Amino acid sequence: MFLKSLNDTQQKLFLGLAQQLIEADARISDQEREMIYALSAEMGQQELIPDPTDDVLRTWFPDHGSRTAIMLELIGLSACDGRVAPEESRLIRRLQKLFAIPDAEMKAYQAWVKKFLTVKNEAAAFFVSSPARRTAQPTPTKATAAARQKTAKTAKTAKTTKTAKSGKTTKTATRARTPKTAPSRQAAARKVASPQKPSSRKAASRTK
Fold this sequence. Notes:
By secondary structure, this protein is mostly helical. It is built from 8 helices and no strands.
């Protein structure tokens, strides 16, 4: 969130500190791994400077703004999995002493990070389908159930009646068309198949 303002070397040093932080307790949680990947992607930085010394950190983070940025991110990284290991706390205190951050300011950082992670988790929950968060449907009473059953029965009866009427209409229409069309085809067939007889006048002429 605050790391884009850092220069290239500062970003690499921060990632070195972040890597040192999540490995401090010899246990890397999924949340820590995902967060450090997200921070790396946010900066567009894939390289790190491992285990930076105090002199290097003091030189490359000389101002209050850059120090505040990495402290807020490191506090968030240490608490993202719901627990802060003693080894992680020691690294945070080392940086607090190195940057001469007053206790009151440090407590303010930690309180802000706690609120931020709470809001972030609440927002993430919006994108997860959970039966517990679905609106509970009211339990139908006996009267409501009877009314629904009656409505369903009425709808079924109406559908059956409509289907019966539709079938009757189709059947009647088919019967009405069949006699009208069939004789016409039969007549046409007879007309083609039956040769014309010579007229009586031509027959008489041939006899003569």
